[in-house]
Structures are given as C-alpha cells and as structure tokens.
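Can't paste images in this forum, so I'm doing it all in text. The chain is below; anyone willing to post the predicted structure tokens underneath?
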Amino acid sequence: MRPVAKLSALVVAAVTVLGFAAPVLAAPAFAAAAGQQLALLAATQFAELAGSDTTAADYFGADVAVSGGTAVVGAIGHADGAGRAYVFQEGAAGWRQVAELVGSDTRPHDTFGNSVAVSGGTAVVGAPEHANGTGRAYVLRLVPGTPSTSTS
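Text version of the structure:
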C-alpha cells in the first residue's frame, strides 16, 4: 500500500448557491500529486429566496438543503423561536415557495428548522430545543400541489 500524498495547500473560496454562501475547498497540491488537473469552479447567482412571512429575527437560512428542484430552508427564530421550514420548488418561472412547515407540537424556543434535509419527496426537519432540549426530528412527505403549514 502506497502512502497518500500530504495535503500541503488549501484554497478556500465562497460560492453562492440559491442565495446562500457556501465554502468551496480545493486542494491543488493533492490534485497535482494524484496526477489530476484541478478545475476551478465559477458560479452565478440565479435566485434569492426569502420566506413569505419572515422578519429580521427569524434567521431564515439557518440551514438549507436541496434535492433536484426542491429546496428546504430553516428559519429558527420565527414565531418566538418556535421556528419554521420553508419549501421552495423550481419551475419555469424560477423558484417559488410552496409550503411553510411547522411541527405538530412545536412551541416557542423549539428552533424547528435548525437542521433540514431533503431527498426526493421526503424532508426531515430538526428541532433540537423541543421539550427543554430533548429534541425532535420530523419526517415529512412532500406532496406536489398540496401546500402545507403543518407536519400533522
């Protein structure tokens, strides 16, 4: 077994995806050692998302997940910290909000939307402060054409 080449340089840049900055890490020394060319990534912002009822203290964008043409965005400060998750769909006219999600038993300070994940038609939304820090994860089926405001 050959030893792996040491990583001697690391380049950090920021790329905007759906209006949110995301770090991009490139390791030129590692790519060169592996005999590969390193391609640089360029990005152009094509959308900026905002929840239909978010305010400055909602922390919209606390977490973001994308799968295909669906994006789920957490807003942990909404409704006195109860939190929300917003679902956006990409269509011919661009991205539009199709749902605002809240847990069936969400209370103030639960931080629903602290973590979000989406794969195909399923989303998972975390609320780590639910029940005084016990936490919950809500699994939701995203059904096209049926806007929702609750997980129930």
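The radius of gyration is 19 Å. Residues 28-33 form the longest helix (6 residues).
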